[in-house]
Amino acid sequence: QGEELRRLRRHMQLVFQDPYGSLNPRMRILDVIAEPMIVHGVARRPRDVYDRVIELLDIVGMPHDSANRHPHAFSGGQRQRIAIARALANNPDFVVADEPVSALDVSIQAQIINLLQDLQDKLGLTYLFITHDLSIVRQVSDRIAIMYAGKLVEIAGRDDIFNDHRHPYTEALLSAIPVLDTDSTRQRIVLSGQVPSPMNPPTGCRFHTRCPLAQPRCAVDEPPLELRAPGHWAACWVR
User: How far apart are CA 223 and CA 47, in angstroms?
Assistant: First the structure.
């Protein structure tokens, strides 16, 4: 099982949230990007490894001379490009992007998002994009899963989540998106109470302690994640 998992890891890679903490400061960028290829035996000859690193730097928009420099020489956005290049080193099918732009300036965030979308189109990648920024969610997602206190409460296509959501927590989240239209009649839903700990969750529905629609049953029985419409799942007793 260990060997099988190791082979599987070649096809699944991760882009971390913090571009400053995810790169070893003692390693050259050449070695940072080459390491996963060497570990998984994708490239063995030094020349093949070097050529692949240069190709990956090209793909993410970094100059070739970056290969011989160290992480401290780069900005946060450049480091995240290098981290993306490392994630692509083994030609993965699936990439987990864990808050990949939250540590970056707003102007740089757009560049990294555009890069990720371009790479998805060119390389046929599947992303699991983890974020709390709903504007980014709407921009990058095909399907969206909403979590509350460690539990999935709704899964649906992007348009269904934004226009036909079924869970009260999803509704509260969407109400928090800033609106530029001053004539909008949409009201912000303000939730009271503390977010429960996933390590010590309340009984029943985990959202019931803050839900404006909660009924007695919600405090006792945990609602299952059920199919409510084609491709649309929700876990709620009320809706």
Answer: 57
pTM score above 0.70: yes
CA distance 235 to 167: 7
Tell me the pLDDT tens digit for each residue of 10-44.
Answer: 899 999 999 999 999 999 999 999 999 998 888 87
Structure tokens at 158: 């992007």
Element (H, E) at 13: strand 12-15
Q: What is the spatial distance between Cα 129 and Cα 144, in angstroms, rounded to a whole number?
A: 9
Buried b (16+ CB within 10 A) or exposed e, 44-80: eeeeebeebbbebbebbebeeebbeebbeebebbbbb
For 128-149, write each residue's pLDDT tens digit.
Answer: 999 999 889 999 999 999 999 9
